[in-house]
Structure to design on (607 residues):
């Protein structure tokens, strides 16, 4: 130990590795921009768009669960708020440009998130899960029983009246892809900015030891509510994209408990407290059922019974894969990726 | 007399167990006060009442001229009460540096938007926090471990991180719950030296809990002995050493 007076000169601040990091970002952006040139409409509409949106929803939940340590099993409720808000804003305030509409919809979801986060100031863990479940059922009920939210449509469905930015029509697969990817890239940047700031550090402190966080003066209640708000902001925008960038037409049941659990799995599979990991988790959630579908076409499984039995079998296989993955890779797929990068690095180092 | 910290008839029970029984004493500004007493005497409970983790059933506390019956831990922190824990309470998935930086949270004055968009006061805040954290880490010999995740560190280093996290905010009053537990003689003396220096250089008043009477009598200028939630003795180390009640109840069994 040194004495205080002769304290070592402070090390220069660790600069973000300019070069490698920037290069990776630029390459990633170019790749994201070039995707429609390579992928056909099926790939865009059925695989890439839903993966990106679900990954974004995963980020939303991960900010709450992975970074702040708060459980929610009502994520889809906040997605539905974003979707229905977007619909109503586009319909009733046609002068608002789409990006503004998305932000306002996100903010409305954020307010709902803060309200449903209030119980987190009193209760933790399992019971908090139960209270977010309340949000899940409340909003599904609200949007199916009050037709005002779907402009009194008979089917209670919503479809975007227009999807355009500055006269560019975004209804095509490519257009929807660009809408989704541009929104997602901006929100990824926002997520990184948040978790790398004091706010992110305070969230993680609360997650790891909330009594100690409180004792060092972190405003635990405010930070928890902020986390609910920001998480729901991300989920709200993801919900709007899911309804109009992916489904085209949606109803409240598109955001049911199943969807909430899928988002939960994305976070668990992709890795808690990661940003990019959520897209691995989302790819897994989106691709596995498609692959299982394809597989059942190749191998004749009809001896197992009718369609319903087959669907159940899929659920079982899906569940088994998740369990195996969790046992083998409890820190999620992203830790697998990190170890890979580490291995490459150390090889590069030893070859120097 | 008026001290930086005064307790008046503070009592606390847990379902029939009287952890603190009408306890009164005073800690003068600038002193190192040691709390000793057998296991379960109520020492940790006392620290928890002072910084608001527990709420006393009766009595009141005066800190730095402010009287309160109960206080919120965040308020205590903002008043300048720092604290380490008997059992590991670090942010285990964060690095040493992040733990120490977290200790500065109460000094953050940039708004949320400034923080996330790196505008306005954020730059100065980040720089200032980092400089303070680095200084505290090198003072406690933690600079070599700054990037390590705390849960991967040996126990002794974790204790130091806990101290660094409390110290970095520049507390007026530093409550240390068994900072030397599990250390060997040499490490204890090193820690004593650090605490003395914290007291001298930072000017923090220290209240610490320690079982090793030899160390305590050397380090502290004021000793309070607790037994079953009651105060058994209170005074300078020499007086306490000679107190027959203390010898009978506590020192006698140790030596
Ligand atoms: N949260 C709690 N719930 C119930 N009982 C508690 C709690 N905290 C402390 N106690 C009880 O209060 C009494 C005093 O405990 P405390 O931890 O303050 O003792 P201590 O002097 O710090 O002991 P040690 O030297 O073992 O750390 C004990 O009987 C303990 O069981
Ligand atoms: Mg104790």
């Amino acid at each position: 130990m040194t004495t205080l007076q002769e304290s070592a000169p402070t090390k220069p601040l660790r600069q973000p590795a300019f070069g490698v990091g920037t290069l990776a970002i630029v390459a990633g952006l170019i790749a994201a921009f070039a995707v429609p040139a390579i992928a056909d409409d099926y790939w865009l509409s059925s695989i890439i768009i839903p993966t990106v949106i679900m990954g974004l929803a995963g980020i939303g939940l991960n900010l709450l669960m992975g970074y702040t340590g708060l459980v929610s099993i009502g994520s889809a409720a906040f997605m539905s708020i974003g979707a229905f808000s977007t619909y109503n804003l586009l319909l009733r305030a046609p002068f608002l440009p789409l990006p503004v509409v998305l932000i306002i919809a996100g903010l409305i979801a954020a307010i709902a998130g803060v309200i449903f986060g209030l119980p987190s100031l009193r209760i933790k863990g399992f019971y908090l899960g139960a209270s977010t479940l309340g949000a899940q059922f409340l909003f599904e009920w609200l949007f199916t029983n009050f037709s005002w939210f779907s402009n009194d449509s008979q089917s209670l469905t919503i479809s975007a009246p227009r999807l355009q930015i500055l006269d560019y029509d975004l209804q095509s697969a490519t257009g929807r892809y660009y809408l989704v990817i541009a929104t997602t890239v901006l929100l990824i940047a926002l997520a990184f900015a948040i978790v790398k700031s004091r706010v992110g550090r305070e969230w993680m402190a609360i997650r790891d030891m909330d009594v100690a966080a409180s004792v060092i003066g972190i405003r635990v209640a405010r930070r928890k509510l902020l986390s609910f708000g920001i998480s729901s902001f991300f989920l709200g925008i993801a919900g709007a994209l899911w309804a109009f960038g992916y489904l085209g037409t949606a109803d409240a049941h598109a955001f049911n408990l199943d969807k909430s659990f899928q988002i939960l799995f994305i976070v668990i599979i992709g890795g808690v407290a990661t940003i990019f990991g959520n897209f691995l988790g989302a790819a897994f959630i989106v691709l596995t059922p498609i692959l299982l579908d394809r597989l059942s076409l190749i191998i004749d499984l009809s001896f197992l019974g009718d369609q319903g039995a087959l669907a159940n079998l899929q659920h079982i296989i899906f569940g088994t894969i998740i369990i195996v993955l969790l046992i083998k890779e409890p820190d999620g797929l992203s830790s697998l990726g990190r170890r890979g990068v580490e291995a490459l690095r150390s090889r590069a180092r030893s070859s120097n | 007399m008026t001290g930086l910290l005064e307790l008046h008839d503070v009592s606390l029970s847990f379902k029939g167990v009287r952890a603190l029984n009408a306890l009164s004493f005073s800690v003068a500004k600038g002193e190192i006060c040691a709390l000793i007493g057998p296991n379960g005497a109520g020492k940790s409970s006392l620290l928890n009442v002072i910084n608001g983790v527990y709420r006393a059933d009766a009595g009141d506390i005066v800190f730095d001229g402010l009287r309160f019956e109960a206080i919120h831990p965040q308020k205590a922190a903002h008043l300048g009460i720092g604290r380490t824990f008997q059992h590991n309470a670090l942010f285990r998935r964060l690095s040493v540096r992040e733990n120490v930086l977290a200790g500065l949270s109460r000094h953050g004055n940039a708004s949320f938007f400034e923080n996330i968009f790196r505008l306005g006061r954020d730059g100065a805040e980040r720089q200032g926090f980092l400089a303070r954290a680095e200084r505290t880490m090198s003072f406690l010999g933690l600079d070599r471990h700054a990037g390590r995740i705390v849960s991967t560190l040996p126990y002794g280093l974790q204790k130091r991180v806990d101290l660094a996290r409390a110290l970095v905010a520049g507390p007026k009053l530093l409550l240390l719950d068994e900072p030397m537990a599990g250390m060997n003689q040499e490490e204890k003396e090193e820690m004593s030296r650090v605490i003395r220096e914290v007291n001298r250089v930072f000017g923090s008043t220290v209240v610490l809990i320690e079982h090793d009477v030899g160390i305590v009598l050397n380090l502290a200028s004021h000793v309070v002995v607790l037994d079953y939630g009651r105060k058994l003795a209170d005074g300078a180390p020499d007086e306490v050493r000679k107190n027959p009640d203390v010898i009978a109840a506590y020192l006698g069994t140790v030596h």
